[in-house]
Amino acid sequence: MAQVMKNQGKVLPDDDSADLREIGFRSLDFSELALRVEDETGDELNFDAPGLRQIATVGDVLDFLLQLQSE
Amino acid sequence: MSDAAVIPPSTVVLVSGGSRGLGLAIVSGLLADGLKVAAFARTVTPELRELAVKYEGRLHIGSVDITDAAACNAFVREAEERLGPIDGLVNNAAIGQDSLHVHTSVDQIEKIVNTNLTAPLVLTRLVLRRMLAKGLKGRLVNVTSICAQRGYSGLVAYSATKGGLDSATRTIARELNGRVLANSVAPGFFASEMSAVLGQTQLDQITRRTPTGHLTDPDDVVPVIRMLLCENTNINGQVIEVDGGASI
């Protein structure tokens, strides 16, 4: 996640409760992150948009990725 | 315009159906402009092989059926290993039709939809996923047809697939906002290739009704595709018709 933000000249805050809108992390940034995770794990992470819309914080992103990988 | 909003010109372009007709002209034109190109088709023609020799190191070619997702995946990986990350895609591969809808077999309808709509969507998904995974921005050009805008007998399934691709273009432009410029180029009827199935009488009629007085030639279309891939135009989610005004 830090790398995705760094590529855009942004910094990932340490606080897991940081609001994604405030730090400029958009839905396509999540897609980029998910695809990077796919590259690492070798498994496709497909999901519907409603699940993505519920993500609001940095912690939510990490939780959602873990949830996808456990499915 | 902020840097974040600029989608840079494509440098490595994947062209489907690049072995003859418009596809070959696209490949040739992009190479002449200094771009790197990966081109595949079901059959690699001698003309495409000649280009591969002429532009050794800048053109990667292969015999791939666009409906074979695994083969497409393998080709893209090979191409990127040889040329670098793909940041441009031209969905050009398609099969034609020359049959009234009521006399077109269900199998043939499925084949047309699979080749002209499903396969390009799957290939687009593949390329976009690879772009996003690398944090790249890119450009997409779907080659559709004026058939998507106006009705022509004998082309029901074909027209449906081209209209579907135009719709997908608009949605991709919205969905990939800030990452991808997506547009369609909709040529009119060519005097050769798929248009040959229309018959001379129908072609003559179309020619008479075209303000410029001539049917579309691949050389009319290539500059538009090159512009969408290489120029900073801010054109996004559009269908650009290249038909001499036949459809106005």
Automatic annotation (TrEMBL), chain B:
Enzyme's top EC category: oxidoreductase
Keyword Oxidoreductase: yes
Superkingdom of origin: Bacteria
Keywords: Oxidoreductase
UniProt KW Oxidoreductase keyword: yes
A Pfam family annotated for this UniProt entry: adh_short
Gene Ontology MF term list: oxidoreductase activity
Matches recorded under SUPFAM superfamilies: NAD(P)-binding Rossmann-fold domains (SSF51735)
UniProt-listed Enzyme Commission number(s): 1.1.1.-
Family as reported in the entry's similarity comment: Belongs to the short-chain dehydrogenases/reductases (SDR) family.
PANTHER family hit by this protein: 3-OXOACYL-[ACYL-CARRIER-PROTEIN] REDUCTASE, CHLOROPLASTIC, SHORT-CHAIN DEHYDROGENASES/REDUCTASES FAMILY MEMBER
Name this polypeptide is given: SDR family NAD(P)-dependent oxidoreductase
UniProt source species: Paractinoplanes globisporus
